[in-house]
Amino acid sequence: MKKKIADRFNSLTISRKITAIYAGVFSAMLIIISLIFLWNMWYYYRSVSKSEITALADKIEAYIEEGNDVNMHSINDLNDNPYIEVMVRQKNRPDMFFGTMKRPDDFSDIDKGLKNREGGFYRNDIGAEPYIYTQRDVSCNGADYEIVILRRYNHEQKIINIFMLIFMISDILSIAVAVIIGRYISGKILNPIKQITDTAESISLYDLSQRIEVPDTDDEIKTLVLTFNDMIERLQISFEKENQFISDASHELKTPIAIIQGYINMVDRWGKEDKEILDEAIDSIKSETQHMSLLIQQLLYLARDTRDENIINKEVISLTEIADEVKKEAEVAVDNINISLEADENVYIYADSSLIKQLMWIFIDNSVKYSAGKRCEIKISVGTEEDRAYFAIEDKGIGIPQKALDKIFDRFYRNDRSRNKEIRGNGLGLSIAKTIADRHNGEITVKSVEGKGSEFKVSFSGSVNKKCIKDGNNG
Predict the structure, then answer these.
(1) What is the pTM of this model?
(2) Confidence check: pLDDT of 217 > 80
(3) Domains of the chain: residue spans and CATH
């Protein structure tokens, strides 16, 4: 039975559950209050009745014990309460009966309730009417008397019954009102959720602009709406970036393909016999092919990183040794460069050596590209700072505008000064650098002044000693 009720309740909608819970709790409290009120009423009337009965019983008992004459008239004079009836009878003479109550034909109703216990109160119906009464035994001048004080309870019973009916009707009406209010409240509470549902159903990949109106209340519903709107905002930004990424990738691939096709057509028409045109076409095709190959490799790396498919082989490596290798390679590979290294000894991190080397080379390539045609001055620094290992690459190039600093790690982003034919690039290098740093719990900070140069610094989280850093702990 309990399982059926639980299953039935679980199958209800949230609004009906809220209505049921609200109406149920309200109804239970209302019924309990009604029962407490009726019980207090019953207890009050009973207490008053007992007090009246006790007072009259004490008066009659004292009257008899004083040796006064016991007769119908004297007993009637002692009772001034119209709801109370008195019966006094002499035990050895049952026919001697005095009091305000005429002895019923069947006296067994009273005798049945009497318990031979002085001070006790009893409840019984006598002659189809409810009575509460007590019985006492009194002896005086050799005569034994039995006193029975009875109080009719029909008036109070009628009042209690009337209040019980009033409470039943009011409770039923109140429960009905509680159900209506519960439905209204649940509708009001769940209306934002319905809006979320409707908005979610209407949102598509081609329309992420819809938002839910934020309610004025400062509660969990407002938090839910703000969270949902923030989620849609992030989805929209991500989708727009994805579209921009696809558009930029297509554009970057379109340009070298167009150049290659142009040279192929030129060779096909005029360059078969012209060695100068043929050499120019071959050099350009090789250059654009290399550029396109690098672009595809970078795109594949970013795509694999998004799916967390890039293989990273971490081990304890010397950041100082990696920086020294990069310095020597740059001196051989790059013309017109002056590169220096300032490094602490034995700065270790737990990382993939090839990716850390690639990270350094990305910054060095940027420094070389944006050296404004002058001799490229680069300084590599390696050390520890606040228990964090770091390396920094500083140049004296054209610098980066302040307004572009928060965008340089976006895919395909290139500021206006770098968008010329002499500076080759596709805007993916720093984006790849950011993914490599993130994979190694690294943080990239950039300082740049236009016309004076830039500094890229990568700090690796974790405690540092002179031997190694491993997963952020001493190893």
Answers:
(1) 0.49
(2) no
(3) 7-160 (3.30.450), 220-306 (1.10.287.130), 315-474 (3.30.565.10)
